[in-house]
Design goal:
The structure holds 2 protein chains of 2 kinds.
Chain A: H1 2-20, H2 33-63, H3 79-108, E1 115-122, E2 125-130, H4 158-161, E3 164-166, E4 171-174, E5 179-185, E6 190-193, E7 200-203, E8 209-213, E9 219-225, E10 238-243, H5 245-254, H6 258-270
Helix pairs in contact in A: 1-2, 2-3
Chain B: H1 26-31, H2 36-66, H3 76-112, H4 120-139, H5 171-199, H6 212-243, E1 254-255, E2 258-259, H7 267-300, H8 308-321, H9 339-349, H10 351-365, H11 374-397, H12 399-405, H13 409-439, H14 445-471, H15 489-522
Antiparallel strand pairs in B: 1-2
């Protein structure tokens, strides 16, 4: 009796907690409300299944608890029932999977008008690089990383000369424009994660990974590292500011290009 | 009504009587014993002891998370060492060792009607190598620099770099050596379990008459024999990278402004190897739990397990499928994103056989005669937590839903519920169930009920709310949750609540351990078959069973393991070795 009651309470408590507790995701600030919707669908389907199974158990425990003289039924198999349950489950799982795969297809198909922005992770800070007037990022190599060239840009690549380098400072993005984040690391694994954008991806030394999104709200958002990267991992915060186009242009005008940053060094090496 | 087939009609496995090694001294009887039952106790005691270390580590983590800034001795470095050792100990050295080395050794020979494992000497070596692996692991706590703090997944490059505790000290080396030893020891035991199930079953014990406990442990062992080699090579390769300067997993790296002497390696290769082991590992822990809980439910509900054959095929199917889902741990690892389509599909397919198992457990309760004994309570609690944890797996397995949730506390809550809490509840249920066979006495009922309620409700209150902290976007593996915009004041209070629950659940385990020791002398005498169960381990001439298990003659099996409440039979159970026809038994075959 008590056991059945507790099982019912587990279901009721879980459902109430879900709807009444103050702990829920942050307001979204990107185009990935598809992902939020898929999570909501998943909550509904799994919630119904959880409640159904546990309440059924509670009923069984109450109704079929041992009393003097009871005897259990003897029913080794029930082919029809077993097949029905299998089919219903398969349908439910498909209902989760299909929308999920559609949204994933969107997630991995970068729109052709997305601007490329490079994020470079290192223990324990974020740097960024934006393409200059030519709209192209120059190539890079970890082997080139030095104090003067913190992102390892290859100086001989003309595309790289006008790249805007933002070392260990805030990234600004214009609102409403799709961006393709190109992710790079020069030491260990990191993961560029802004909870409000819903998207994230690991950064692997030696590779360039990516994801894309469109910021939909102006404001200041915190960047967190979501892949364990050593002792400084929890403190590896950064800032993304989503600006109006005017603010963004003004900010961009204040930034230095790779050529400007490496100019004094070239003078130095000529001596 | 079908006549019960006499033993001759069932093709018996050919079993030759085996020569047992008989101990000559106290040392060979209790220490260097070749009796699978003694080895099982040794495995279980060692696993429990190291498990206690993991429990204490979890308290230390919860102290830090629940009351940040209060405990100075928990430095970031120490915190990472705690999470790493906690995870590794729980998954490998406790759960794997206890289910396979502990329950496997004790139950396989008894349940299939064998005198012992087929290679008793190798079986003994298996335990001693396991013990050595545990000692090497423990020694890393005392090594210069302390144990590794790389996270239990040991992802390179950070695992072997200076920014990670133990990365350039002894920690990571000892960890890798310990894992290598564990795998060697496990392989010795694992071959034993597989060959014993296949070759040493008694007359009449066909594969489709095996109790589901044996099916679960057997399938898990086969999987472990196939999966552990991937971890083995990954460990060896990383050891080379760390000690010899090779670059299997190490690309060109600039560490704190300095170019390292590595180049060309692939960090993601390690992840593939790790998870090719790591995902089957989840089921290596889960399948024995599935099997055991099936038998607990059937016995204590006095009802045959519903859909036995479907249950067997579900176990085998899950085992096979679990080898093609590994990269669902890597959706945001930076592997080619198109892999996501494949692995999301395989991952969600595996939900179908898993759901079938759940249905069959609850349908076994339906129209049963449910005795709410402590093993049954734990079995019920297992279903609740397993269903909960399994369903959140549908979030994380569905590739795009995983994107915001991966590497957050949601993942931590999910895997603790599904492969921490759920299997451990089965372990507890199984201990309450088989303790009378092992010791001849029952565990204390009052302490048992206290242990059950605190553990079940406490664990649920720890991990259910934790999902929502992850949903808010709080990443896992953070010792500092301050200065985070997503972490609200109220969420800090929730974290404190979770920590207090964790201490209470931990305390209940002390009561359980006390009960284990106290009942050896003071428990109620159990007799040979206190639960009135059908399987062979309850039909031994002595309790605890003597070396050789079954006296002079091995039992002969006449029926499946689930003849409970057969209509027309005198008793509500018919042991597997009971000849003759009783009532209207309908064994599925």
């Amino acid at each position: 009796m008590a056991v059945a009651l507790v099982l019912v309470l587990v279901v009721v408590g879980s459902v109430l907690f879900h709807f009444l507790s103050p702990w829920w995701w942050t307001p979204i600030a990107s185009n990935w409300d598809y992902i939020d919707n898929t999570i909501i669908i998943t909550f509904w389907i799994t919630g119904v299944v959880f409640a159904a199974v546990v309440l059924f158990m509670a009923y069984c425990v109450f109704r079929f608890r041992h009393r003097q003289g009871n005897q259990a039924a003897y029913e080794p198999e029930n082919k029809r029932l077993e097949w029905w349950l299998t089919i219903v489950t398969a349908v439910g799982v498909t209902a989760l999977l299909v929308p999920g795969l559609f949204v994933w297809n969107r997630f991995v198909s970068v729109p052709s008008d997305a601007t490329e922005v490079e994020v470079v992770g290192q223990q324990w800070q974020w740097s960024f690089r934006l393409p200059g007037k030519d709209g192209k990022l120059g190539t890079s190599d970890t082997r080139n990383v030095s104090v003067e060239n913190p992102l390892g840009v290859i100086a001989s690549d003309p595309n790289g000369q006008d790249d805007v380098v933002v070392e260990a400072a805030d990234l600004h993005l214009p609102v409403g424009k799709p961006v393709k984040m190109l992710l790079r690391s020069i030491d260990v694994l990191h993961d560029f994660y802004v909870p409000e954008f819903r998207a994230k991806m690991d950064m692997i030394p030696g590779s360039v990974t990516y994801f894309w999104f469109t910021p939909t709200k102006t404001g200041t958002f915190q960047v967190l590292c979501a892949e364990l990267c050593g002792q400084g991992h929890p403190l590896m915060h950064g800032v993304v500011m989503v600006d109006t186009q005017e603010d963004y242009t003004a900010w961009l005008g204040e930034q230095q290009t790779f050529a400007q940053l490496s100019a004094p060094q070239q003078v130095g090496s000529a001596e | 009504m079908v006549d019960i087939t006499p033993a001759d009609a069932v093709p018996p496995a050919e079993v030759a009587e085996m020569e047992l090694y008989h101990p000559h001294s106290w040392w060979t009887k209790y220490v260097f014993s070749q009796d699978a039952k003694v080895i099982a106790i040794q495995y279980s005691a060692t696993a429990t002891a190291i498990g206690l270390v993991a429990l204490v580590l979890s308290w230390l983590m919860r102290l830090q998370l629940g009351f940040p800034g209060t405990f100075d001795f928990i430095t970031p470095e120490a915190y990472y060492q705690f999470i790493t050792m906690h995870g590794m100990i729980m998954v490998i050295y406790l759960l794997t060792a206890l289910f396979l080395g502990g329950f496997g050794n004790y139950l396989i020979p008894l349940m299939v009607g064998a005198r012992d494992m087929v290679f008793p000497y190798v079986n003994m070596l298996s335990y001693w190598i396991y013990l050595l692996a545990v000692l090497v692991l423990v020694s890393s706590f005392f090594a210069p620099g302390g144990p590794t703090g790389a996270g239990w997944t040991l992802y390179p490059p950070q695992a072997i770099m200076t920014g990670t505790p133990g990365g350039q000290d002894w920690g990571i080396m000892l960890m890798l050596i310990s894992l290598i030893l564990f795998i060697i020891g496990f392989t010795m035991g694992g071959l034993n379990y597989v060959v014993t199930v296949l070759q040493a079953r008694t007359r009449g014990m066909t594969l489709m008459r095996l109790p589901l406990t044996v099916w679960g442990i057997f399938t898990a062992t086969v999987m472990a024999l196939l999966a552990f080699p991937a971890l083995f090579v990954a460990c060896v390769m990383m050891l080379f990278d760390r000690a010899l300067g090779t670059s299997f997993f190490m690309p060109a790296i600039v560490e704190m402004g300095e170019q390292l002497q590595h180049g060309g390696g692939s960090p993601i290769l390690f992840q593939h190897l790790f998870w090719f082991f790591g995902h089957p590992e989840v089921y290596i822990v889960a399948l024995p739990a599935f099997g055991i809980v099936s038998d607990l439910i059937s016995t204590h509900a006095r009802k045959n397990i519903f859909g036995y054959r479907m249950m067997v095929w579900a176990i085998v199917g899950i085992g096979a499928l679990s080898f093609v889902v590994w990269a669902h741990h890597m959706y945001v690892s930076g592997m080619h994103p198109y892999f996501g389509f494949f692995f999301a599909t395989t991952t969600l397919i595996i939900a179908v056989p898993t759901a079938i198992k759940v249905y069959n457990w609850v349908l076994t309760l339906w129209r049963g005669d449910i005795h709410l004994t402590i093993p049954m309570l734990f079995a019920l609690a297992f279903i609740v937590t397993f269903v909960n944890g399994g369903l959140t797996g549908l979030f994380l397995g569905n590739v795009v839903v995983d994107v915001p949730l991966s590497d957050t506390m949601f993942v931590v809550a999910h895997f603790h519920m599904v492969m921490g809490v759920a299997p451990i509840l089965v372990i507890f249920g199984a201990i309450y169930h088989w303790y009378p066979k092992v010791t001849g006495r029952m565990l204390n009922e009052a302490m048992g009920r206290f242990h059950f309620w605190v553990t079940f409700l406490g664990a649920y209150l720890i991990f259910f709310p934790m999902h929502y902290i992850g949903l808010m976007g709080v990443p896992r593996r953070y010792n500092e949750l301050t200065d985070m915009t997503v972490m609200t004041e109220s969420a800090h209070h929730l974290n404190s609540f979770i920590s207090i629950m964790a201490f209470m659940v931990g305390f209940a385990q002390m009561v359980f351990l006390f009960n284990l020791i106290w009942s050896i002398r003071h428990g109620r005498e159990a007799g040979g078959n206190p639960w009135r169960a059908t399987t062979l381990e309850w039909q031994t001439p002595q309790t605890p069973p003597a070396h050789g298990n079954f006296g002079k003659e091995l039992p002969i099996v006449y029926r499946w393991a689930y003849d409970y409440s057969v209509p027309g039979a005198k008793e509500d159970f018919i042991p597997q070795n009971m000849p003759g026809s009783f009532g209207s038994s309908r064994e599925p075959a």
